[in-house]
Design brief:
Order of helices and strands: EHHHEEEEEEEHEHEHEHHEHEHEH
Number of strands: 14
Helix content: 25-40%
Strand content: 15-25%
Distance between the termini: 36 Å
Largest sheet: 10 strands, mixed
Length: 353
């Protein structure tokens, strides 16, 4: 069970409790089991923003809950909408004043939300704005869930796909992440299919192996970005802890345990990892795994000085993969005109304060 104590006043974070945990919590208070079902439905299906909205509960009971429990309801600080593709980027304020980013993307196959799992990040990937100021703290299950809930309410549209690929390293917040995943896909909540949920990682090998044992059917996306330890190390400090060989073994283990193929994320940086040699090296790594490769034109981060590969080089890289029967797609760029890269909007907001 993840830590369910709120940081303010030590109150129990009621929205982070699973249905079974909520039943036990209310049972201790002498409440009947059906009361937990009512509350859970208000929080995770009707998406109530406070106890006050739970109109089929007595006023006295709601007041007691408000005094006893912390209730997560993120405050919308800013919304940016792309004039190019309608993508919306949200800046949400947490109860302690920290802010996180979430992105809503509309596709033909459904609406997708990309959420953050931490305030900041300590992984230090050199092409990512999220990590520039380090890690502040991890998010609770309710703070991750409420990014989805708030966007559902703000857009008035159902979310069908969730990607944990925003600010933070999800597997660095492992316990809260797995509670979030189970609650998001729980039939008593929004009941989003596990197969429509993707978790991204920069490659924390022990946690990848641990996740393989959870019995989940989510997609795991590995941020690779380099085909040798040396190349990867220039972009990602985590490469000094876990080699490419260890990563590939962890990927095979995840597939063997779950039957779910890994997705490899590969950000193309001009003059760093976009050569023919890099493409052929990626072919050698991917072929035994049979996984899908997402080629990502890197979002420019001014503080890092990295430049996106030219379109012709991106297409040439993709062609090498395809000629070698590797399924590689160039990710459609969403929200480039609205601080699309993870952490950029939060950073600009902090600078303006």
């Amino acid at each position: 069970m993840a830590e369910a104590k709120n940081r303010e006043g030590g109150k129990t974070d009621i929205k982070s409790l699973t249905l079974e945990e909520l039943k036990k919590e209310l049972e201790i208070r002498g409440e009947k089991a059906f009361r937990a079902g009512q509350m859970y439905n208000w929080m995770h299906v009707k998406l109530a923003r406070s106890f006050a909205e739970m109109t089929n509960l007595s006023g006295e009971f709601r007041e007691e809950c408000a005094e006893r429990y912390a209730y997560t309801a993120l405050k919308t600080v800013r919304v940016q909408e792309s004039k190019i593709d309608g993508t919306k980027k949200y800046l949400f304020e947490l109860a302690d004043g920290n802010v996180v980013e979430s992105v809503w993307m509309k596709y033909k196959h459904g609406n997708s939300v990309c959420i953050s799992s931490q305030v900041g990040c300590r992984m230090g990937c050199r092409f990512c704005a999220s990590t520039l100021d380090g890690l502040v703290r991890s998010l609770s299950p309710s703070e991750m869930l409420d990014q989805v809930y708030a966007i559902t309410l703000l857009t008035g549209e159902r979310v069908s796909n969730v990607v944990v690929m925003g600010m933070g390293e999800p597997l660095d917040n492992y316990d809260n992440l797995t509670v979030f995943l189970r609650m998001l896909t729980d039939e008593n909540g929004l009941h989003i299919s596990q197969r429509n949920v993707t978790v991204s990682t920069c490659g924390l090998v022990p946690e990848m192996r641990r996740l393989a044992e959870e019995g989940l059917q989510i997609t795991l996306a590995l941020s690779l970005h380099g085909v040798t330890d040396e190349k990867r190390g220039k972009l990602m400090p985590v490469a000094k802890r876990y080699s490419v060989d260890e990563l590939m073994k962890a990927c095979r283990y995840y597939f063997e345990r779950t039957g779910r193929r890994i997705t490899l994320e590969y950000s193309l940086v001009s003059g760093v990892n976009d050569s023919e040699e890099d493409a052929l090296g990626l072919v050698r790594l991917v072929r035994p795994l049979g996984c899908h490769v997402n080629l990502i034109p890197v979002n420019p981060v001014a503080e890092r000085g990295f430049v996106q590969s030219e379109p012709r080089k991106i297409r040439a890289f993709q062609n090498i993969l395809e000629k070698n029967e590797i399924n590689g797609t160039i990710r459609r760029e969403m929200g480039r005109d609205i601080d699309g890269a993870c952490g950029q909007l939060r950073r600009r907001h902090r600078s303006a304060d």
